[in-house]
Each structure stands twice: as C-alpha cells, then as structure tokens.
Amino acid sequence: MTGRRSVSIMGSTGSIGCSALDVIRQANKDDDNGFDVVALTAGSSAEKLAAQALEFRPQVAVIADERQLPDLRARLEGSGIEAAGGPKAVVEAATRPAGRVLAAIVGAAGLESTLAAVQAGNDVAIANKESVVCGGRLILEEAKKAGVRVLPVDSEHSAIHQCLGDGRQLERLTITASGGPFRTATLEEMRRATPAEAAAHPNWSMGIKNSIDSATLMNKALEFIEAAYLFDVPASVIDVIIHKQSIIHGMAHFTDGSVIAQLGAPDMRTPIAYALGWPDRVPTLVERLDLVRLGQLDFEAIDVEKFPAIQLAREAIAGGPAATTVLNCANESAVSAFIAGHCGFLDISLVVKEVLSRFLSGNMSGMACNSLEEIGFLDRYARNAAEDVLKRVPGGGVEDRTLG
Ligand code: NAD
Ligand code: MG
User: Mind listing the pLDDT tens digit for each residue in 211-245?
Assistant: First the structure.
C-alpha cells in the first residue's frame, strides 16, 4: 500500500458512484491507506448528494441541475463544504487536482467532465462507457498529451487490463456477457417486454439505462467498441461470448495458445477498487468465489437474431469514430423512449439500426470526431434521427412491424 490517496467522483449518487463510496468507506477504516474525497457530483438529487458529502467531507459538492442548488446549499450550511451547481461547475470539479477522477456519469453527458479531468492532468478511472464510445480517440489523445492514465472500470475491461501483462504477443481478446434477462426468452416475449422486466438483470445491480442496455446486449456492443478504443486493437480480434454466471469477465489470448482470464463475483466494487487503487490493490468485502459451490461455468454463442447489437457495433466501428458516436446517441434516445413507454423493447435495436444505416449511407460518416463540438453535433444528429424513426413506431411496442 502506498499511503493516502485522493479521488473525485463524477456521478456519486448513481449505482457506480455508491459502490465506489462503499469501497472508499471500507478503505478509510485504515487511516494510513484511505482516500481523501476532493469532489462529489450528482445529476439532480440534492438530498442524496448532501448526505454523501456530510459523510465523506469533500472540498466541493456539485449538483448538475442548478434548480437544486439552493436545497443543496441549505443542507450543507455550516459544514464548511462548498456547494456548486450547473454543468459548468461539474466540469470544474473534474479539474480539481485528484489522484483519480472516477467518471461515473451515465451517457454522453459525462464526456465533457471526463475530458476536462484528463486535460487538467488527473488520472481517470472510467466507468462511463458512452463517453469512450463517443469520444474514445479524443480522450486517449488528450490523455497521452497530458501524460495521464485512463483506467477501465467496466468489469470486462478491468479484467482485460489485469490479464494483458505487457500486452506483447497478444492474439485475441474475449469479453463475456451474462445474456441479460432475455437470454432464454422468445422473440415474442421480448417484443412484449416492459421496462421493469427489461431492467431486472439476473446477476448485476445497475442504473436503469445500463440495465436496459444489458437486456438488448447494447451494453455489450458499447463495451466491444470501448475495448477497441481502450486497448487500441482492431474489432476483428475481439470476441463476445455468453457466460451466464458472470464469473469470468474477460480474457486475453496470446500467440503461444495461453489464455489468461480474470474471475470474480459479479460485484462492481472489485473493478472499481482496482481502478481506484492501481497499481495497488484496495481490500474490499466483496463475496469471495467458491468454485466448488459454483460447480460449473457455461459458455454459449450469442443468438444474433434476438440480439443484433454486436453486429451493429461491428458496422459502427468499421464506419469510423463518427459512426460509433451516432450508434451510442441513437441508443440513448431509443432507451429513453422505451423507458417512457413510447416504443417497444425490440424497437430499441431497430431504431439504432435504422439511424446507423442512414448515417453510414450519408455524407457525414467520414467526420473525424476529434472535438467536443463535432461530437455534440453528431449527438444532436443521432437524437433527431432517432426521434424521426420513433415517430413511425406505434405506442406500446407490441405490434410486429418493420421500420424503413
Ligand atoms: P446511474 O444512472 O445509476 O448513475 C448515474 C450518475 O450520473 C448519477 O449520479 C446521476 O445523478 C449522474 N448524472 C446523470 N445525468 C447527469 C448529467 N447530465 N450531468 C451530471 N450528472 C449526471 O448509472 P450507473 O449504472 O451508475 O452507470 C454510470 C456509468 O457507468 C454508465 O456510463 C454505465 O454504462 C457505466 N457502468 C455501469 C455499471 C453498473 O454496474 N452500474 C457497470 C459498468 C459500467
Ligand atoms: Mg460491463
């Protein structure tokens, strides 16, 4: 152990943010090796953020929804903790010097603060996969310029980071997928699925957006793209397989036939601790694996008819960084529409497919995607296109229909 460290958490009130604070709470039982919290930021829950701030004593607590700032201020009055509000204040918090900034905002909304953290010279522990899918190249180029590290938090990428060693003589990478709640469902059952059914993940407890993405396997598609960016490998060497127990998270295959896998209970506190502590290990209370009790580990191929997402990710990667941004933002739009009851479950992939294919056949697909402005433009393009496609979807999402 290397003594005390400092950390900021962007998106502290979410599923990853709360798990990270749990890791820190445990680590702080050892005064000499704990974490000082620099900044905590949240979207809109002043009550939850204030409670976290009073427990972890950051320099600053920031609420993105400025309307909640008076409430946050009142709750923190007399505590000596600075309160701030609005998206600019979130970005500013990410630039405060910290040993590590945990990027745990959901969606492309997290990109600006991730980039700001990197540009300010902070190492980033990145959970926010959408920001990598939209701005992976930009984040990594800026990280190189600033001489900082981008450490993966997603369990599959954490696994690969742990398996790679020096990365020489690497042949392939495998990431695993649980298969989500509809692994054994029929297409008809999936067509009728409600947001509550889609969000009921068998192994992982996550925020709503990530849970829906896990049910369409779009989560795995985003992770596939994330892996290509983070490990700088061609998509053709990345495999995705179904492993329903979620015990093996990722594997690296080497040219001599060796395969190194990382195993662990499906609990995000392990990869969060890894990214916050690297190169040291931070002790956690995560359940220890009992392989004899588990008995067996199963693997199967993805049913591409039920789950077209990985194929869409392959097409997007082949189309270049602008196309991965469009895929991500079309998906964010479609997931929001599904949660709001404006389309059916299977429509999510249909919308993404339609928006992506329109984009790839248009004249913008060569865009370099190397500035926040360009990514913002593509984000708006994809959301508008998704809304346009969604207009043709009758509400409720139970009818059989073909878009296009
Ligand atoms: P969540 O919805 O539970 O939490 C999101 C956090 O971001 C909350 O604190 C919320 O207040 C904040 N937020 C939302 N919109 C914001 C905005 N516009 N500006 C500022 N803050 C905003 O999500 P989560 O499940 O914790 O996931 C966070 C990220 O981590 C996602 O990108 C997800 O894909 C990734 N991830 C999650 C898991 C998991 O197990 N939950 C695993 C791997 C990766
Ligand atoms: Mg993951």
Answer: 999 999 999 999 999 999 999 999 999 999 999 99
Considering the entire predicted model, what is its pTM? 0.96
- Say if 274 falls within a structural domain: no
The model's pLDDT over 357-373, given as tens digits with 9 standing for 90+, comes to: 999 999 888 888 889 99
Task: Take atom 15 of ligand 1 and give the residue whose Cα is closest.
Answer: 43
Q: Which of 125, 152, 179 is the last residue of a domain?
A: 152
Predicted local distance difference test score (pLDDT) of residue 392: 87
Name the closest-CA residue to atom 8, ligand 1.
14
Q: Retrieve residue 191's tokens.
A: 């067509």
Asked if 128 and 186 sit in the same domain, the reply is: no
User: Are 193 and 338 contained in the same domain?
Assistant: yes
Residue 52 lies in domain:
5-152
Q: How many residues belong to the chain?
A: 404
If we measure between CA atoms, which residue out of 385, 384, 382, 386 comes closest to residue 134? 382
- Within 6 A (CB) of ligand 1 lie 11-17, 42-43, 64, 90, 104-106, 109, 127-130, 154, 204, 206-207, 209-210, 268
The count of structural domains within the chain is: 2
Strand partners, 151: 125
From 152, 185, 205, the end of a domain falls on 152
Cβ atoms < 10 Å from Cβ of 77: 11
Pairing status of strand 35-42 against strand 124-126 = unpaired
Distance (Å) from CA 90 to ligand 1 centroid = 14
70/124 same-domain check: yes
Selection from 93, 10, 92 nearest residue 52 by Cα: 10
Ranges assigned E (strand) in 255-313: 259-263
For ligand 1, what atom is nearest to the CA of residue 127?
Answer: 30
